[in-house]
Backbone:
């Protein structure tokens, strides 16, 4: 379990299936990288459906830069991530991450 980190995370962004196809996806990435750059512990959870959509699209440079901004990118351990760099968490860990954050934003 990674409970030590989860209790420190203050912002969790959850990207759903249609998120990568919307204009708001890049806006979300910019928001979370800005917050992380100012020291806010930030995580991005890419749902399985979102990962499937991302795998079918050209690589997103912003997604590749998340770690450089200190953003923790997570996926379900059942997701097929392809080239995405993300930490696989089981269902209990994802629930703990969500409940341990001060703010959850769903896109």
Residues:
């Amino acid at each position: 379990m990674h409970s030590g980190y989860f209790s420190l995370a203050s912002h969790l962004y959850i990207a759903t299936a249609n998120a990568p196809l919307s204009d708001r996806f890049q806006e979300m990435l910019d928001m979370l990288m800005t917050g992380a750059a100012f020291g806010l512990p930030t995580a991005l959870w890419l749902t399985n459906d979102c990962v499937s959509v991302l795998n079918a699209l050209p690589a997103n440079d912003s997604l590749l830069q998340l770690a450089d901004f200190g953003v923790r990118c997570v996926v379900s351990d059942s997701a097929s991530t392809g080239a995405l760099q993300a930490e696989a968490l089981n269902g209990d860990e994802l629930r703990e991450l969500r409940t341990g954050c001060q703010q959850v934003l769903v896109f």
Notes: Confidence is low (pLDDT under 50) at residues 1-7.
